[in-house]
Amino acid sequence: MSGFEVSGGEMGWVVIGASRQVERNRCRLFPLPEQRESKREKERIGERETEEREYTRERERESEGYEAIFINNIVDQIINRVLRPTYWNVAKHPIGIQSHVQDVKKLLDVGGNGRRMVGIWGTSGIGKTTIAKAIWNAIAHEFEGSCFLPNVREGSLVQLHETLLDKVLGKNWKIQSVDEGISVIKKRLRHKKILLILDDVDQLEQLENLAGDDWFGEGSRVIITTKDRGLLDNREIELIYEVKKLEYNQALELFSWHAFGRSEPPKDYLKLAQRAIAFADGLPLALTILGSHLRNRSIGRWQVILDGYKGEPYTHIERILQKSYDALDDDAKEVFLDIACFFKGGNKNSLLGIVPKNCIEVLIDKAMITIEFNHRILMHDLLEKLGKDIVHKESDRTRLEFPRTRDEPCGDPGITPTPGSLLKTMSSFTREDLGHETFCQNFGKVSPVN
């Protein structure tokens, strides 16, 4: 009977006990104000704790999402930087290239919106292609897809369309016509942010059929290198970067690296070096060729060579190139002419099967050819023109019109390859041996023998 007060007998106990029970029931049904406030506070605390837990879980989910995005971005950057783009060999001594790259990057505004076309314009041998390669190496990783089309003037539009689609989409595309190529490019690349470099363009038709105004996605950039300023104007390209000749200090440094293997000439060669760079007139190709030609020669020999230019101020780079060719021995000359006529853009390993290795090394040493990372033989178009002009002047029908037949010996271990003879039957060469354009020019639709 605990909790009940006994007072005034049995009846009093009943009344008091009953009244207190009623009070307790009333408190449960009708809590006091302080009790009601305490209950509401507990409810508010519970709600806040629930909200805080939900907020924490939401932040954790967001954090996991941000982390995933962050990781994905890192993966994309690694793929774009390491796996996707080809990195081009720019130059053995890229003097002054970086300042050109920075200037062109400002015109490109890679992080900006919209689509842009930028022209790189300058004379032959001034380094337009070298600058384009350096820009590619610097920015190609920032695009979803990228394609560098070298020597556009030498390629067919259909083949260039196929290469563009192959590089960006990663398939072996077969295009039957220019119209089909344009249609496929518009359909498949319209929403992709791409970098496209069109190197050595010489016809308006090439620009119109390779890079329309709205063919590519937002943020895309197209770079065109050309010797023809009018071509860029006709295409209404307003962003044009003119490549200027090297200033004296840069010209002397570039020449010195090739002539002496150091950044400046020895004191006793300084005046001769100054004469040489005056003949080269600030053109990187001329400085490279002339420096390579004079390397490891005595002061007396330098004087004899440079006196050959005396009385005839340098106005055409062809004169320097001709003298470099004249200085080659007969074997190296023959290999140079074979490359100019047939093997530019071809595979070095294929050529080594028919010409002496030391001739290739001489031409590389004299900067008359370069070898790309994929063994592709590169020759400047001025050197190619020089070689073909020499062949035409000499009326060398055996090289241009009478390649060996299939019945003649090919690759016999007992036969020493002779430069210019092209012991391997020309009709059995593949496009990889010769380069696509040379193959098509010389053999049309001849089926290669594998």
Describe the model.
The structure is a single chain. The chain is of the alpha/beta class and 450 residues long. It folds into 4 domains: 31-83; 97-242, Rossmann fold, CATH 3.40.50.300; 248-325; 328-443, no CATH class. Helix content is 55%, strand content 7%. It is built from 20 helices and 7 strands. β6 and β7 (377-378) form a beta hairpin. α9 packs parallel to α11 (284-294). The protein is elongated, with a radius of gyration of 38 Å.
Major sheet details: 5 strands, parallel
Shape: elongated
Low-pLDDT regions: 1-8, 10-15, 401-428, 438-450
Computed CA radius of gyration, to the nearest angstrom: 38 Å
The overall pLDDT, averaged over residues, is 79
Which CATH architecture of the largest domain?
3-Layer(aba) Sandwich
Question: What is the number of helices?
Answer: 20
Instruction: Tell me the strand percentage band.
Output: 5-15%
H-E string:
HHHEHEHHEHEHEHHHHHHHHEEHHHH
Total beta strands: 7
Can you tell me the CATH topology of the largest domain? Rossmann fold
End-to-end gap: 113 Å
The first-level CATH class name of the largest domain: Alpha Beta
Looking at the chains present, what oligomeric state does this protein adopt? single chain
* Helicity, as a percent range: 40-55%
- Going by CATH, what is the homologous superfamily of the largest domain? P-loop containing nucleotide triphosphate hydrolases
Backbone structural class:
alpha/beta
The number of domains = 4
- The largest sheet has its strands arranged as 2-3-4-1-5
